[in-house]
Amino acid sequence: MNLRNVEWLLPISKGLIYAASLFGTSQGGVMVEVFGQNHRSISLSVLADAHGEVIPALLPSLAAQMLLRGEATHCGIVPLPDWLPRRKLLEELTKRHLRMAVKTEGTWSGCG
């Protein structure tokens, strides 16, 4: 057996993933909470009823699309609303059947 060639693990891995999928769902979610200097906070959650695996890839894929289309006009670390306005973010979330909820002052509100 060649230890450098691990292709023999693929059928085993696929079988384990399939077996685990019988006990789970593809739902997903992520929440980011930010605290300001004035002791105020805001929480943003993105939720998926199915195909939650798209959530972590959303922002990098949008950034790559913008770069390829020549739409990226900022360099370095940029606040999210400066390169992806809320309206555009909600539009992209909706295309992917994702929902967003925002919590300010302790109250959650749905956005899409």
Structural overview:
The protein contains four helices and four strands, in the order H-E-E-H-H-H-E-E. 34% of the residues lie in helices and 24% in strands. It has a four-stranded antiparallel β-sheet, covered by helices on one side. It is extended. The chain has helices spanning 9-21, 58-68, 80-83, 86-95; strands spanning 28-35, 41-48, 98-104, 107-110. The chain is of the alpha+beta class and 112 residues long. The longest helix has 13 residues, at 9-21. The model has no long low-confidence stretch (mean pLDDT 87).
Which structural traits does this protein have?
112 residues, alpha+beta, 24% strand
List the helices and strands and how they pair.
Elements: H1 9-21, E1 28-35, E2 41-48, H2 58-68, H3 80-83, H4 86-95, E3 98-104, E4 107-110
Antiparallel strand pairs: 1-2, 2-3, 3-4
Q: Oligomer, anyone?
A: single chain
What is the percentage of strand-forming residues?
A: 15-25%
The radius of gyration computed from the alpha-carbon positions, rounded to a whole number of angstroms, is: 19 Å
Number of strands: 4
Largest sheet: 4 strands, antiparallel
